[in-house]
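Review this:
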Amino acid sequence: MKSNLLICAIESSCDDTSAAVLKGRQVLSNIVADQKVHQKYGGVVPELASRAHQKHIVPVVDQALKEAGVLRSDLDAIAYTKGPGLMGSLLVGASFARGMAISCGIPAIGIHHMRAHILAHFIEDAHPAPPEFPFLCLTVSGGHTQLVQVNAERDMKLIGQTLDDAAGEAFDKAAKMLGLPYPGGPQLDKRASEGDPGSFSFAKPRIDGLDMSFSGLKTSILYFLQKMEREQEDFIATHLNDLCASIQKTIVDILIEKTHKAAEQTGITQIAVAGGVSANSALRQRLTEMSSKKGWQIYIPPLAYCTDNAAMIGICAALDAEAGHPAEDGSVSARSTF
């Protein structure tokens, strides 16, 4: 199978509608339409998300093709997210992709969302040189927190994960407790840059091995804020930046400690980070510091490839084509595993 396939990719796992066009590993376009409808609810509403995907998918795909200078008749395949994600959102993208593939007489290829986040590092303009196998990937987002040993494009071993809530959810829920607007994670990160991370201390859960937990941390933050506001009514407003910095430090500490432990156990020193939370400035800074202290070779993707985007879906299909692998099963699942 030729390695310079023209692939149109579609990502619709949550609340971003994205379409991209790739020629081999080169991204020709990568369009993302977000959904502001969720802001007034303080979180993603699944039914509203699927309706917004239906509204956005045609213009987003059309814009991706136009920006790439590609006609539908030029395409060799359509790749789409098959899961995990919100079922309604996934079905909109999968149904559109399959219909488009049938109309063009080309294959439709289902891609695992978390595998795509990891393999985004192999997009041509993501790094001067991609990581070599094996490497470790800390994958952190609003829905997932995982440590993955990546032995090959299709050989990925989950060696650690959150036992309850994801790190991204912890950021967002903590931000909501502080009264920050949705999406809270980026708002908390922005405020944290102006605060003192040593101002407040929050207990970190003791979890054996490489697994993590963030549910108890969220509860401890809530109880702490309630207690302090009983003593000082404007406590949050007065200490907002310091609270953000302290909460962010605690979450990032957990992620770094487990990544360090994984590197020691496996002997792997090539460390990548992926997922929406990889855009967090403190996490990026700490990984860079660990690179100097521990001799790690760190791979942090450009911001455009951190959050949900279709380019990462397309690179999976492109890499499989290069290796001569058959297309993945196209069945859509809200909870699919590697």
Remarks:
- The chain has two domains: 6-125+305-323, 135-300.
- The CA atoms of residues 197 and 249 lie 6 Å apart.
- The mean pLDDT is 93.
